[in-house]
Amino acid sequence: MRVHCHRQKDGGRDAGASAVNLAEPLVLRPATEQDAEDIARILPDLGYASTAAEVRQRMTRLADQPDQMLMIAAVADAVIGLCQAQRIYLIASDGYAEVHALAVLKQWQGRGVGRALVNAAVQWAQDAGARRVRLRSGVHREDSHQFYEAIGFTRQRASYAFEVQLPDPCDESCGTAST
Question: Hey, what's the signal peptide range on this chain (predicted)?
């Protein structure tokens, strides 16, 4: 999927606007391995620091998963944002698609880039057979919550995330464990 968006004539900066407010066309396209360095540069805006090598390794794993979408937004060949979504299948319901990552470089926020990426994810989800799209956002990201509501998402319920840390499988199988 390759989408071109063009500059909004009135130059407005409304988060709910449907057009992208850029002098150059915005291009949305699937991420490629060549985007790994740019993606690594954007991920800290989500609170996740990663090296280009780590991003490349993760992209390789994601490429093997048919229910994944990783899209980037670029202006003049410069990557300025990304969106990752996944189709989720459940026994308890018809499932959904979930946006796992949405990030736009700070200097490009408020120009419709995030909205264009979310719209692309929603279209992808619909094409994949999902009947709803959800996303999770940290309670401290109030600006993000306002953005999501402005583009049509509704708050559903508060919940906690629980996790357990597992040992790195390479520690034992790769011969790197301490003796």
Answer: none
Strand partners, 3: 28
Q: Report the run of H or E that residue 124 belongs to, with start and end.
A: helix 113-127
Looking at the DSSP bridge assignments, the partners of residue 74 are 27, 79
CB 164 within 8 A of CB 121: no
- Tens digit of pLDDT at every position of the chain (179 positions): 444 443 333 333 333 334 444 678 999 999 999 999 999 999 988 888 899 999 999 999 998 888 999 999 999 989 999 999 999 999 999 999 999 999 999 899 999 999 999 999 999 999 999 999 998 877 778 788 888 888 888 888 877 778 899 998 876 666 554 44
CATH architecture observed for domain 3-173: 3-Layer(aba) Sandwich (3.40)
| Residue 102, beta-bridge partner list | 83
